[in-house]
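Quick check before the chapter quiz. The format below is the same one you will see on the exam, so make sure you can read both the input and the output lines.
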Amino acid sequence: MIPDPAHPFAVTSVEEVGWGLLLVAITMTLHGFGMVFTVRVTNIAKAVTERKDSFIAGVGILILASSLILMVHLSEVVVWAAFFFYKHAMPDANTSYYFALMEYTTVGSNYNLPRRLRLLEGVIAVAGLITFAWSTGVLLTLAQDFQDREVKYLELRRKRLRRHDARSNQSD
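Here is the expected output.
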């Protein structure tokens, strides 16, 4: 969009806002499916490993969840990169993906969008912040479940040791 001398403060267009809203909606939809999928897969993994009550199995579930969450975020970045490439905002698909990933993670990059799409640099960062917060909530819930299970296991183990010690002291 070429700046209009009569409206020097008009820096966005309705089209740009529309694209931003659509891309955020797509991002959130993908994230919703991804988080439900992550919870379902980890619940299956918990059911399979439940009898083992293993520390390693519990950490493995957290690693599995983290990997799935990473894949969800990377797929969301593909949507933004495809849009930037489609709009000829970046010279090639690789640069589009790099730019989208750096902006989505709020790291930033040496590239900038053309003035007509400049607002989307901030919108992609907001989308990333929102989805990372959601992912953190999911991972925190899974981690809390793991920690609760481990604390329960340790308490049970201490009770057994105390009973064993009490029986040993009575037989002496």
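If your answer matched, good. Residues 14-167 form one domain.
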